[in-house]
Amino acid sequence: MRSDAPEPHAPPATTLDHLRRIAGAAAGTKSADGGLIVRGIATIADAGPEHVTWIAEKRFASALATSRAGAVIMPEGFAAPPMPAIVVPDVEAAIAKVLAYFDPVRERPVPGIHPTAVIGAGACIEPTAAIGAQARVGEGARIGAGTVVHPGAHVAANVAIGRDCSIGVNAYIGDHCRLGDRVVLKPGAVIGSDGFGFFYRDGRHNRVPQIGIVVLEDDVEIGANTCVDRAKVSATVIGRGSKIDNLVQVAHNCTFGPLCIVTAQVGLSGSTRVGAGVVFAGQAGTVHDVAICAGARLGARAVVTKDILAPGDYLGFPALPLTESKRLSVAQRRLPELLATIKDLTRRIAELEAERTGRRTSSG
User: Fold this and answer.
1) Tell me, which fold does domain 18-102 have in CATH?
2) Which listed residue, of 102, 149, 168, 363, carries a Cα 20 to 30 Å from 62's Cα?
3) In terms of C-beta density within 10 A (0-12 exposed, 13-18 middle, 19 or more buried), how is residue 164 classed?
4) Under CATH, which architecture does the 112-324 domain have?
5) φ and ψ at residue 354, rounded to 5 degrees
6) What is the pTM of this model?
7) Residue 262: pLDDT over 70
8) Given 18, 51, 176, 252, which residue is catalytic?
């Protein structure tokens, strides 16, 4: 690399100062900067003089006094910080824009088909799509405009993929599955592997054929090494705009409404029905064939064992409304004390009974 080449994460040099450009990217207003050049974004603790940091809550404002950050992104109505500020109405949205501004250029196959890719007969690939090295596109598959199939990915026969999708390195999409527009599969994601279906007869587990498909609607994202199983019949469906983290298992015939969030290591048993906007925190799960209504939020390690019919926060095993789960948790922590009290009361009752029995005997 040439010694005068810019850092990979740095924006291109221009005659404008960088802070002004960052303020524009964040859609915020900028205080005086004295010609400050900013080359990256970092947390309050890690930021240096060439970084911009951010703060969203007043309880963290005191940390700015000792921060080395060159500038800060902050909400309206906060006290003036010790460094130049970019004031924005929505810090979370602004940070997303600034992160995108500093996002390094990622390797992306150029439009067209790499010479080492394997394309099945009858596959239809739009000219603006890109098929990476050693990727495979099966017979009769359809790849939409602007979609990228990264190296080593496997798109099986008769799969349909919409526009502007990203199929990650070594991801797999099984036969006949359907993806909408702007779907993202992270590396190693498996869409449309067989559901886990067996029945026990004659001293062995017998396989139940899984002949359904998976449907991922528009703007769905599936994390690295996450598996969404094909349905036994009909379809496993992930609703529009839903985002699923890494290392999640979605079993056969599950259905999701739009805009759900599923975080790492969640496991959903077969035929779970999930309403719109449901949130699963880490390691939450379900038993087979339960329904979760729109707006429910499952805390970490919550396990749904029966239908959830009202929106709100749920926690525990079995999953209960948050306030009820907290009361049970407090009661469980008091069990040793309560058991000791019961033991003491039992002893005292026995002593009183013995004393009363003794008085009866002596008076008789």
Assistant:
1) 3.40.1390
2) 102
3) middle
4) 3 Solenoid (2.160)
5) -65, -40
6) 0.84
7) yes
8) 252
